[in-house]
Amino acid sequence: MTKQASKTSIRKVLISAVMLVTALCLSLSISISTYLDIKEQRQLIINKLDMIAEIVSFNAQITLIFEDRKTEEKRLKSFKAVDLVKNIHIYDIDDVTNKPVFFTSYNASKTPPVPLKVNSIEELKEPRITEDYVELIKPVIYEDKIEGYVYIRGGLERLNEYINTKILVDITLTLFVLLLVLLVARGIQRRIARPIEELSILLQDVSKNHNYSARASSSHIEEINILASSLNVMLTRTQNQLERHQADKLEIKKLNQSLEEKVNQRTIALREANQELLNTLERMHQYQNQIVENEKMASLGQMVAGVAHEVNTPIGLGVTGSTLLRDKLADIKVAFEQKNLTSKQLERFITDGIENLDLIYRNLNRAADLISSFKRVAVSQDLELSSDVNLATLLDNIIKAMKPDLVSKHPTINIDCQEDLVISSKAGPLQQIFEQLISNSLLHGFTSSEGNVIDIKIAKDQNQLTIEYSDNGCGVSSSIKKRIFDPFVTTRRGEGGSGLGMHLVYNLITQALHGNISLDESCKAGAKFILTLPLGEVN
């Protein structure tokens, strides 16, 4: 619970402020005046004592020289009429020790004598002021020679009486001024507080009775007139606003009568539109799945066509070699039957036959290797189970299968992968992911057929496999970086790009392999993708 602030009133604040300022100013003024006055009176006493000491010193020159104590004592008694002087000592300089010794003294009536000050001559050359007395010493000089010293002690009774009287007068004057200021302040605060009270009563009436037609009257104070004018403007605007509010309430009441019917109509229309939108969205999902499957089949068909092209070459060379060998064998048979076969013909037939058989053997082995690679990577993904996959061998087979596609851009493919890195995963999705990434670089990344480089770096860390795929192509446009894995997003529409390649890669990684793929947006040259796959057993 918050603590409530202490309450006060303008009257109290005004009177307190005026009285406080007046008291501070009077106190400061009287204190400074009293201090300066006392300082001046004290200095006058010191000057008077100094003058008396000079007179005594002058008169004592002859009496000290002739050691006439009686004359000096009579002269000192003349100071009885001077109330300021309390004690006077005259010291003579001893001719033997050259030190001051007592010569004569004077003590005022009812004033006890004071000890000799022969040891304080240097200290009292400057006046010393205590609470009740002033002391000083003057040398007696005759023809530039010190003949002795005069010690004089004066009382400060009259100064203290003066100070007490002045303080009493100052206090009386202060109380009188404060009383006068209090009366003036109360008169001022009544002139200021009355209009404010009238404004307060007006506001209470407005707050309690909602009487916004009331208006504040003017006063003789300009600031309060400004406040009253502003308050009147506020009341006028509030009254106008309330009148408009009432009119608006009537209009809203009329509108509410037809609003429910309109809401029901709009709700029915919205429900129908939502149903139509759901049906459209369902059809779009069906079309998308169909297009993705078509893309998969197109990719598989492209790979099959490439493999068929590669296989046709060695098979064609094998057929040509076997046909040539058969023709030569027919010639040898005819020559043998006619019994005109020579040793040179037999030797040439044997040499050519060995060459043709070697050609047939090499090309048949090459076709067998291609078919074996195709069988390893073209397994159906829907029925495929996890198996041990050697990544280095898988990449080598993929590059061999895509050789016809690589011819146009001649990329240099650098693979950083351990030769014995075997993981438990699905070879089909992995093969299709790498194929699609390489195809994406060939179609979208490389603009020329020279200087093209693809880097594939594979590393394992505990139960995670990290694949970094990058090329030095033209990179990914900033307009599609955030949407590169969305379906139908492409910069080569109508030029061979369907916009489903990276979406297919994303689905294969996240759904078939339960991994993750991201585009490294900090890569400045080309494009770089980072793939992370969870692993089972890693050998």
UniProtKB/TrEMBL annotation:
Domain HAMP: 190-243
Any one GO CC term of the record: membrane
Catalytic reaction(s) noted: ATP + protein L-histidine = ADP + protein N-phospho-L-histidine
Annotated compartments: Membrane
Domain Histidine kinase: 306-537
CDD domains the record matches: HisKA (cd00082)
Protein name: histidine kinase
